[in-house]
Amino acid sequence: MRQGVVWFAIGILLGSLFVVLADPISNPTSVGESTPLRVEKLDLPDHAAFILFGTPEKPLTPNAIDQEMRRLMKSMSIKSRYKVYALPVETPGTKIVGYGIKITGDGRFEIKIQRIIEGKGINMTRIHENLRSWAKESVKSIPDIKAERPVGVPDGYRVKAITTDGKEIVYSEGVSEPYWHYFGPVEDEVISPPYGNVYVRVYYWGLQNDNDPNREYFMVAGDQYGSGAYYRSEPGYGLRQVNPDYLPYRTWKGTIFHKWNLETGLSPNLHEIEPGTPLDGPATYQFSIGYKGVTIPISVPVPSYGMYAIADSSQELVKWVIDFDLESNSAKYTFQTRVSSVGSVSESALKDGSWHKIVETDYEVKFVNPLHVSDSKTLSVGWVWMIKTG
User: Does 149 fall in a domain?
Assistant: First the structure.
């Protein structure tokens, strides 16, 4: 994606974001004919936050969240290249009871989704207070990740290339310094006594100044240190030691999905994945991931028995399977790992002024009773990362 000095202008224009967000929110969106969507707005020194509340009796729906986010984004005069939000995926048996988004004056965001499996041990007051507390926390500042060296054609040189159909292309002079621009994290969680809990947090990046006028590159990863992100399972076995509402279920299997082929009109491509080979555990592996010479590290803990990836290039998706030894501490107690992928979409298709689905992230965890594995519960979280340009 080409990018010159326009970021300077965008940076100036972004200064108006907080002022716009500080305007009073309009009346809540109606869900159906009689159920108002409860929206709470917080104006804080370094960001503004919008919180959507649901209940077990009247949970939030992906459609209602989608409508409200689009309404909010449309009402904001955000002078930024991108507008973004996360659209929750409806997962079996879960109810969405909370959704929050934080936005800063320079365009960074943080998003949190809360889900439950209805039953005893669910404290809705505490869940919603946790969302409010999260909304009040300052948005984490993470620097952009720059390339080690410029790329392109130096002044005084020409580069010719021949395409597969015999056409000659001459690349113009000019070098650029690609970098990964930090968007922000998305978190999703499901609380489910007596089985266990599942938590996910991942960070989103976009490749800028890469000298490619045809493709937009995005990355689902961790922070600049290779940590921060997690796919976490908390089985009942460990939780029951601090909460009697849980029973001694253990983690049996985890499955992570990154799905890039959500809109064929965007001509999506899956480029890089890590880890991309089978890994034995228990162990922690170190990798790096990125594109066009700009990478970030990723630290990947692996339990007994191990982890392996299945990438389907024809479908532009990748699945990581995590197998747990039921007698291991990783199966009995909290365990978290990380994965990452890079994909791209057509830049011209993305710039049509519409909202687009870029990538879906899902995590599915199966908790089992080790004495009777048929006594089990599968919990999952997931969302689609939405982007609109212009």
Answer: no
